């Protein structure tokens, strides 16, 4: 699954699917790095039939040396998804507050867990509201799902693999954080500033705007300009593996379903003081 229609769904198309005898399972994963929790937004209004799933506690493991948003324990993830009504083989649609990052991490996590039938609402909750479609405060009680989590559905990188990819003559490790964080000029979240040696900076706004992706050809052009060769390996990281999951989704849309996510990302990299840190501009810039 890598075509736009298999990865993204527009609001009116989703509305039509929800108005059928067997609608997709709908997950609200609104989330902020700082500020009020996404559950508060859900309580104010959400798509009819949507179940709130917390990115921090349900879709990720506990923060620590593995990073701020590490991989979840498979059994815990399975329990959370079943509680939300996720069924084996049944389509799932995820949405967030509009920037697409939390929804992309939810998409990635479900795909990593072996559930392939998952799409992202393009533009998230704001796009749904802008289309004049209904919202509700009613909280549904889903029938328990029967999904089985089978890790390994998408490729991942650990710190050593990320380092080797960044240093390789062929292949590229993309750092999708803002340029000042990459260059080591500022670091608002993690204790050390800089980037993985050899990684190439491609800030997220260069391939996605307000949670919406350009056409596949434009994505391919942008990734090619960043050094992503057609047959060479590619991976992505950010601060904690959320924004980078969106980069992996963008790479899927561009025809690279083999793109790997360094889940621990910078928060995992700097947890070990022995790991080297580079600062300054993108290699070759």
Describe this structure in words.
- With 285 residues, the chain is an alpha/beta fold.
- The chain is built from eleven helices and ten strands.
- The protein has helices at 4-7, 11-18, 38-44, 74-83, 101-112, 124-130, 159-167, 179-183, 216-225, 243-253, 265-269; strands at 8-9, 25-28, 51-52, 92-95, 118-121, 156-157, 172-175, 200-201, 234-237, 260-262.
- The strands form two sheets. It has a five-stranded parallel β-sheet. The protein has a five-stranded parallel β-sheet with strand order 6-10-9-7-8, with helices on both faces.
- Helix 5 crosses helix 10 (243-253).
- The two termini are 34 Å apart.
In short:
This protein has helices at residues 4-7, 11-18, 38-44, 74-83, 101-112, 124-130, 159-167, 179-183, 216-225, 243-253, 265-269; strands at 8-9, 25-28, 51-52, 92-95, 118-121, 156-157, 172-175, 200-201, 234-237, 260-262.
